Predict the 3D structure of the following.
Amino acid sequence: MRNFENVDGQMLIGGVRASEIVRKYGSPVYVTDEDAVRSNFRAIFNAFDRRMPTRINYACKANTNLAILRILEQEGSCIDAVSIGEVEACLRAGFSPDRIMYTGVNVSTPELKAVAALRVPINIDSFSELERLAMIDPGLPISIRVNPEVGAGHHEKVVTGARSTKFGVPRDRIVAAYAEALQLGFRPKGIHCHIGAGVQVVEPFVQATEVLVSIVQELEKELGLRLEFIDIGGGIGIPYRPEDHAMDLDLLAEGITSLIKNGTSVRRVVLEPGRYIVADTTVLLTTVVDVKETPDKKFAGVDAGMNTLVRPAFYGSYHHVAVANKLGMPPEATYDIVGPICESGDHLAKDRALPRVEEGDVICVYDAGAYGFSMASNYNMRPLPREVLVHKGTMNLVRESETIGDLLRYQRIPSRLML
Ligand code: LLP
């Protein structure tokens, strides 16, 4: 959660008034502060790189806006991509193929061929994928994802490292996977795991690193294989609530890098943060269109809903909210912030003490930069919103909103139904 500047009750984002952004670009709108992206990247990179050579693979599933990708390209970031679409977006943003790593799950052969044809290194998730890639291109740099049997995350739906999940090669088959890779002609460069998303504490990362270190030792002993990197994945949480604590990056970096340096000859640590880099850089601004009082509740009805930001409805996630044009004013009532989607689950926030909310007010939803736009949908035939980049008092439109025509474009009515 970032603290925004307050000038006479008006929220400033990157030096621009929130109400001015809405006036110029309409509502709802996602707004990203460029400086925040740069400073988050530098904070995590420096915490690790001062201890050992580090590569940050930004998990672009969190946010694939091309302007954000450009900023991170300029910062020297690399990329974790999960689909051919993400790979192509990152190439378009200027990343060279060797700065991208493709980590798919249940990857189809056509997608594997498309990624290999672009010369993007592949992080293998299964024996099947390994064997299919060997038929396509055994010269491609690969690493292998292990299921570390260490899982964590803010919700059961985002825990990936537990034994019961679909991800990675099982721990007890991982040496066999590397042996098979060598036999097929690959020269594996690294090992990877990802425990889950939104992890607020250091311990599970340390536990997973211990697993990776012991595998690296087995690979050296049993196969004579020396890896170049250990990739500990992403999942570093952020404080969404005012009372939450930020992750202690130094403690995290020290825990992970000391295990690698003391236990292996691996030279580089790789991390794949998504949320940590972009979540708090971006807010969703949405306008109050209808205030309703029922016997039980006050509802502030806004023009963004679970179609715009699904995390509260899908995971029960907390996103902080404020009235951007009444910032710092004392709370007068408790509201649910609800959207235009025809489902009772359609809410952005529940039971929030806010200044008196009136139609026309602008609500700011915090920490919407990770998995906000990227999980938005067209449910109820609603076009995706605009995205704006602010930078030291300037504004740029970085995504135009869709039109209803865009939504209808791909549908076809069979002619026999037109009679
Ligand atoms: N690496 C891998 C292999 C991943 O699967 C993920 C996220 C990441 C890195 C980045 O995780 P992060 O640092 O952003 O937590 N939609 C959910 C999050 C799902 C994350 C899926 N994988 C949410 O809104 O919380």
Summary: Residues 59, 61-62, 80, 103, 158, 160, 194, 197-198, 233-236, 272-276, 311, 370-371, 375 surround LLP (CB under 6 Å). The chain has twelve helices and 21 strands. Residues 191 and 262 are 17 Å apart (CA to CA).
